[in-house]
C-alpha cells in the first residue's frame, strides 16, 4: 500500500494505475476511520480495481468555534485499517500541501450550500467543496464514494460535479449504524456514557416521522410534530435544526414528495453536535 503525503506521489500512482488500464476509486475522509468509512472503502472496491483513501482533517470546513483542534486523529490506526481492506493508496497531505501560501480560490455551490447545515455553519460547505474538488483533481479517480449520513454534502458535491463537468462518477452508500440506531461518526467518541445512551433518540425520532408518512401523512406538519415529540423524551438532547426538504433542491416543502423527501436534523448532547437523516 502506498502511503503518499505529496501530490506528486499520488499522481504518479494514478498515472500508473490508469496507464495499465486499472480503474480507480477515491474515498475522501478526515480519518479516525470507523465501520462507516470502511463500508465506503468496500463499496469502492466493488466498482473499481484500485481504491485510494484520502485522510485530511480539512481546516476550511471548520468554523472559528468548532472542534478542528480536537477532532480525532488516528493515522497509524487508520493506515492499519486501510491495509486490511487492501487499499492501494492512502493520501495523507499536510495543511500546507493542500493550502499553500497564497492560496485564494474557493468553490461555492449557490443555493444548496446556504440551507440546512449551511445556515448553522456559514462557510462549511464552501470548505467541503473546495477540498473535494482539489482531491478529485489530485487523485483523478474514475469514481468517488461518499456516505448518505452527510446527505446535504452529497447533494452539493453531486451538483458541483455536474455543473463543472467533472470526469468522475459520484456514488453514495447508506448510513452505517450501531445496533441501537446511532449513526456511526468520529464525533461519537466525544459523548459521555449518559450522552451515548441518549444519542440513539436521533434515529428513533426520524423513524417516528417516517412512521407517520407510512401511516398516511402527506403534509410535513404531523411528521415534524412526531419527530419533535420523540426527541423530547431525552432531556440531554437539545435540537439544533430540523429540516424536511426536497432531496434534490434542499428547499423546504409543505407536502411530502414520495421518494424525494429528506428529513434531516442536528442536535447537541453536551458539547457534541451530531447529525442524522432519513430519505423517503
Count of strand segments? 9
In helices, the fraction of residues equals 25-40%
- Please work out how many helical segments DSSP would assign: 10
Low-confidence stretches: none
Structural class: alpha/beta
Based on the coordinates given, report the CATH architecture of the largest domain.
3-Layer(aba) Sandwich
State the name of the first-level CATH class of the largest domain: Alpha Beta
Order of SSEs: EHEHEHEHHHEHEHHHEEE
Shape: globular
Strand-residue proportion: 15-25%
* CATH level 3 topology of the largest domain: Rossmann fold
Task: Provide the number of structural domains.
Answer: 2
Query: Strand order across the biggest sheet?
Result: 1-4-3-2-5-6
> What characterizes the major β-sheet?
6 strands, parallel
The whole-number mean of residue pLDDT values reads 97
N-to-C CA distance: 39 Å
CATH superfamily of the largest domain: HUPs
Amino acid at each position: 500500500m502506498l502511503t503518499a503525503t505529496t501530490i506528486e506521489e499520488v499522481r504518479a500512482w494514478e498515472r500508473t494505475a490508469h496507464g495499465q488500464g486499472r480503474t480507480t476509486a477515491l474515498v475522501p475522509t478526515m480519518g479516525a476511520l470507523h465501520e462507516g468509512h470502511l463500508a465506503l472503502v468496500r463499496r469502492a472496491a466493488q466498482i473499481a480495481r484500485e481504491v485510494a483513501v484520502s485522510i485530511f482533517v480539512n481546516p476550511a470546513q471548520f468554523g472559528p468555534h468548532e472542534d478542528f483542534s480536537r477532532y480525532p486523529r488516528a493515522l497509524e490506526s487508520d493506515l492499519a485499517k486501510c491495509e486490511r481492506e487492501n487499499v492501494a493508496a492512502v493520501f495523507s497531505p499536510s495543511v500546507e500541501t493542500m493550502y499553500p501560501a497564497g492560496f485564494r480560490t474557493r468553490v461555492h455551490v449557490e443555493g444548496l450550500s446556504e440551507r440546512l447545515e449551511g445556515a448553522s455553519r456559514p462557510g462549511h460547505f464552501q470548505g467541503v467543496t473546495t477540498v473535494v474538488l482539489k482531491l478529485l483533481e489530485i487523485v483523478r479517480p474514475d469514481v468517488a464514494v461518499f456516505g448518505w449520513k452527510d446527505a446535504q454534502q452529497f447533494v452539493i458535491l453531486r451538483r458541483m460535479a455536474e455543473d463543472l463537468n467533472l470526469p468522475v462518477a459520484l456514488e453514495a452508500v447508506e448510513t452505517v449504524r450501531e445496533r441501537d440506531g446511532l449513526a456511526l461518526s468520529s464525533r461519537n467518541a466525544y459523548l459521555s456514557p449518559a450522552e451515548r445512551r441518549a444519542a440513539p433518540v436521533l434515529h428513533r425520532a426520524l423513524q417516528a416521522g417516517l412512521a407517520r408518512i407510512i401511516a398516511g401523512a402527506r403534509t410535513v406538519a404531523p411528521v415534524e410534530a412526531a419527530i419533535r415529540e420523540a426527541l423530547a423524551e431525552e432531556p440531554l438532547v437539545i435540537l439544533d435544526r430540523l429540516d424536511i426538504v426536497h432531496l434534490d433542491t434542499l428547499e423546504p416543502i409543505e407536502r411530502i414528495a414520495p421518494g424525494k423527501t429528506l428529513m434531516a436534523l442536528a442536535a447537541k448532547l453536551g458539547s457534541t453536535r451530531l447529525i442524522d437523516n432519513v430519505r423517503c
